[in-house]
């Protein structure tokens, strides 16, 4: 093991891992999670706008779209 490395069990096997590499991967994963959350928020806004523009019956079936130019 080199200085700064420590053993980590991965899949039942111990491997030497650099703490800086682990921190980098965690930060990368957090960035990916944040990007995914942003995509979800965009889709929620899009769905809300679509629902605002849709005229639906009592069962939620779309009858027509208001102010849409196809």
Task: Walk me through what this model shows.
The chain has 70 residues and is α+β, with helices and mostly antiparallel strands. The chain has one domain. It has 1 helix and 4 strands. The strands form 2 sheets. A two-stranded antiparallel sheet has the order 1-2. The longest helix has 35 residues. The chain is rod-shaped, with a radius of gyration of 24 Å. The mean pLDDT is 75.
Uncertain runs with pLDDT below 50, 5 residues or more?
Answer: none
How can the largest sheet be summarized? 2 strands, antiparallel
Strand content: 15-25%
Fraction of residues in H or I helices: 40-55%
The total strand number stands at 4
Which assembly state applies to the chains in this document? single chain
Compute the CA-based radius of gyration: 24 Å
Task: Return the structural class.
Answer: alpha+beta
The succession of helices and strands, N to C, reads EEHEE
Number of domains: 1
Walk across the major sheet and give the strand order. Answer: 1-2
Mean pLDDT, to the nearest integer, reads 75
Shape: rod-shaped
Give me the number of helical elements. Answer: 1
Distance between the termini: 65 Å
Provide a short characterization of the protein structure.
The chain is of the alpha+beta class. It has one domain. Helices cover 50% and strands 24% of the residues.
């Amino acid at each position: 093991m080199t200085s700064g490395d420590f053993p980590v069990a991965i899949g039942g096997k111990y491997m030497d891992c650099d703490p800086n590499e682990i921190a980098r991967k965690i930060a990368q994963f957090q960035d990916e999670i944040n990007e995914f959350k942003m995509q979800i928020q965009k889709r929620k806004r899009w769905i809300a706008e679509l629902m605002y523009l849709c005229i639906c019956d009592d069962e939620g079936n779309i009858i027509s779209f208001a102010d849409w130019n196809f």
